[in-house]
Known about the structure:
The protein is α/β, with parallel strands linked by helices. It contains five helices and five strands.
Amino acid sequence: xxxxxxxxxxxxxxxxxxxxxxxxxxxxxxxxxxxxxxxxxxxxxxxxxxxxxxxxxxxxxxxxxxxxxxxxxxxxxxxxxxxxxxxxxxxxxxxxxxxxxxxxxxxxxxxxxxxxxxxxxxxxxxxxxxxxxxxxxxxxxx
Length: 142
């Protein structure tokens, strides 16, 4: 019976959206207030290297797999493995440096807040006034 109640509780949490909603964050100096999905993908694949004010786009990523990272890559429509191969090709050609991989969402928030031109992602609950949120990813299924 306890197993059944636990299963129902977990399903209820999932249906009600208890898993983190992902926010794309940027340094306050970034000259955009909203980013489109295509522009976000271009940033993360290295196709977009500069903001409209000619400042370099600095990309941060999460090192560990988890709900936030999985939701982010699912939204972009690209696997983290494919992203790694894109960056490996860019590195070998001398075209660009890969994103810096950070240990946690707290580290991500700290690095984005302290790095001009930076962009990253965290769960919405982690967003603070030290950064600006430029996109709130839709919850899965929405």
